[in-house]
Design brief:
With 255 residues, the chain is mainly alpha-helical. It has helices at residues 21-44, 46-54, 56-61, 64-91, 103-125, 130-134, 152-167, 173-195, 201-226, 234-254; strands at residues 4-5, 17-18. The protein has one domain (20-254): Vanadium-containing Chloroperoxidase, domain 1, CATH 1.20.144.
Length: 255
């Protein structure tokens, strides 16, 4: 983690707050770029439709790709949360797993704020889902009635992994492996929504952009809260955050 700022008010040891200005800027720029590409694809239309129809033979044959996509779509975010909770529990025993405990609160804020923001925005934009447009012309493994853009699964799955990817700076093999695994799961969830016909390619790109563009606001809110807490409270708070993360995941999956 980069240089830190300290809250010197009150008793106890202030929590170390990461210097995240550069992360905010890069995340926002890349998020806007993803949204721009998504809007161009939506306006152009042909690529969105071509990708959607490309996977239709796979859906009809129920190929291994479709089978895996249904698993990732249904359980990918839950699997990521389980990995985070296992890491949290192991870090209480194995001291080398010393990722900042605050990463769990950043994860909650990113997951919740970007997820809710994306769900509200899709209602405002109100783009019809592929099922509503093509109906029986395609086999689509989705009966969701909510609007299409941005993809909620894409938004939430990427928002869920971004804080760990960006704030855990260790170069140990275990941490690299953890980052690779959650990245594969997160991107797999995004891909699954296209493969299943639930979303257009542009919807998923917009969802990724939503998670990236929402990260600065999420981290700003998290920093405001963390400045009122103390380092001595972190062991207890991290457990509370873990339970809250599980709760939010279950809520979003139930929606």
């Amino acid at each position: 983690m980069e240089s830190t700022k300290f809250n010197k008010q009150g008793n106890g040891t202030p929590i170390q707050i990461p210097e995240t200005n550069r992360i905010w800027i890069y995340s926002l720029i890349i998020g806007v770029l993803f949204w721009s590409i998504a809007l161009v694809l939506w306006w152009q239309g042909e690529i969105d439709q071509a990708v959607l129809f490309y996977f239709d033979p796979q859906r009809v044959a129920y190929s291994p790709i479709i089978s895996l996509s249904r698993i990732l779509s249904g359980y990918g975010m839950a699997a990521t949360t389980v990995l985070f909770i296992l890491y949290l529990l192991l870090s209480k025993i194995i001291k080398s797993l010393d990722a900042p405990q605050t990463v769990y609160f950043y994860t909650i804020c990113s997951f919740a704020l970007s997820g809710i923001g994306g769900d509200l925005l899709k209602e405002v934009i109100a783009r019809p889902r592929p099922l509503a447009v093509f109906g029986s012309k395609l086999l689509i493994y989705s009966t969701a009635a909510t609007p299409a853009i941005p993809s909620g699964h894409a938004t939430k799955s990427i928002a869920l992994i971004l804080p760990f990817l960006l704030l855990v700076k260790h170069s140990k093999v275990f941490h690299k492996g953890m980052k690779i695994l959650i990245t594969v799961i997160g991107l797999g969830v995004c891909f699954s929504r296209i493969a299943l016909g639930a979303h257009y390619l542009s919807d998923v790109l917009a969802g990724i952009g939503m998670a990236l563009a929402g990260l600065p606001l999420s981290m700003l809110f998290a920093n405001m809260v963390l400045r009122k807490a103390k380092q001595e409270q972190l062991p207890t708070l991290s457990i509370v955050w873990g339970f809250l993360l599980v709760f939010l995941t279950l809520v979003f999956l139930a929606l």
